[in-house]
Amino acid sequence: MNLVLRGIEQIKYVLTWVFVLFTKRTTLKGQKEITLPHKTIRVYTFDKDSPGLAQATPFGTIIWNLHWTEGLSVQAQQLLLTHEESHKNRNIIWKGIIYALLIILLIVTYQKGQLILETGFGGLSAAMLIDTIGSLTMPFVAFLIAIRVEEIIADYQSLQKLGEEHFIEGYRELLGQGDSTITGRIVRKILYNHPKQTVKLHDMLNS
After folding, report:
1. What is the rounded distance in angstroms from the CA atom of residue 181 to the CA atom of residue 178?
2. What angle do helix axes 195-205 and 126-162 make, rounded to 10 degrees?
3. What is the pLDDT of residue 160?
4. Distance separating alpha carbons of residues 101 and 108, to the nearest angstrom
5. pLDDT tens digit string along 106-119?
6. How far apart are CA 153 and CA 156, in angstroms?
7. Could you tell me how many helices (H) and strands (E) the chain has, helices first?
């Protein structure tokens, strides 16, 4: 049994290494254990000045950016890890939905792009142009909504596990980390919930 478990962990490590190589353009540094209030979780570390602090991979692992996280307080690290663990626990369901929407968006974009190349913009009627824009917009909006809902769930579960004070203090610190560019701020505004909104949602559902 131990041999089987070691084999599974090795496969996870290799898949996570490939994931980091292609998505972060770097390699893994190793592994690290982080203690939460009720358990310890192992993460796979990398070190790069890129926007992501941490991320749940499709392979049941969590990658951890040492560049941004080493200076975080214990509260912020625990919140970040609890949030990513929530994502990890729903990998099969939500990642499947999000990836499927992304694939649909890419297919529709390719098809509409081919149509434009074949007809030229001058050959597009107003109806065809509206249909093209609508076809691209619907899966894109659905994709954004799916991500936003997933983030809300992860924040909600983090609040439940850590408590309101821990959640707010940790989140306040995390908001000052990561991508501070205009694009980064816009992405956070569109895709991520504000911690006070999560607290309101929690209070409403538990009143």
Report:
1. 9
2. 70
3. 94
4. 10
5. 777 766 666 666 66
6. 5
7. 8, 4
Q: Which amino acid is it at 2?
A: N
Place of tokens 């790069």: 48
Q: Print burial letters for 49-69: b (CB count within 10 Å at least 16), e (below 16).
A: ebbbbbbbbebebbbbbeebb
pLDDT at 45 over 90: yes
CA distance 29 to 15: 14
Residue 109's SS3 state is helix
One-letter amino acid for residue 111 of the chain = Q
Place of tokens 């619907």: 138
Burial 3-20 (b: 16+ CB within 10 A, else e): eeeeeeeeebbeebbebb
Whole-angstrom Cα distance, residue 198 to residue 112?
Answer: 38
- Kindly write down the DSSP assignment for every residue of 6-68, as one continuous string: HHHHHHHHHHHHHHHHHHHSS---EEEEEE-SS-EEEEEEE--SSS-SEEE-TTS-EEEEHHH
Whole-model pTM? Answer: 0.79
pLDDT at residue 5 greater than cutoff 90: no
**49-97 per-position pLDDT tens digit:** 887 899 999 888 999 999 999 999 999 999 999 999 999 988 765 666 6
